[in-house]
C-alpha cells in the first residue's frame, strides 16, 4: 500500500527529507508520493516516517489506488535498494 498525501497538506517540508526512498516530492500545489517508490518504509523503519513527522492529522493516508501486501512492499524495497 503506497501512501497518499491529501489536500490537507500545508507544505511544511517535514516529510520529504525523511523519506528513505526519495518517494516524496513537491507537486503542483502540495507534496506528492510516488507510489512506485513508496514502501511505507518497510525495510527501513517500523512505521512510515512521513506519517510520524507530519503535523497534520490524517494528512497522509493509504492510497486506495495502490494497495500492496507487506510482502510486495518488501520486494519493492529490495529492488529499489538494488539488493536483488
TrEMBL record:
Domain 4Fe-4S ferredoxin-type: 1-29
GO molecular function: 4 iron, 4 sulfur cluster binding; metal ion binding
GO cellular component, one term: cytoplasm
Presence of keyword Lipid metabolism: no
Recorded superkingdom: Bacteria
Keyword set, alphabetical order: 4Fe-4S, Electron transport, Iron, Iron-sulfur, Metal-binding, Repeat, Transport
Coiled coil: none
Pfam families hit by this protein: Fer4_7
Entries under NCBIfam families matching the protein: di_4Fe-4S_YfhL
Protein name, as recorded: Putative ferredoxin-like protein YfhL
Organism: Vibrio aerogenes CECT 7868
Source taxonomy: Bacteria, Pseudomonadati, Pseudomonadota, Gammaproteobacteria, Vibrionales
Gene: yfhL_2
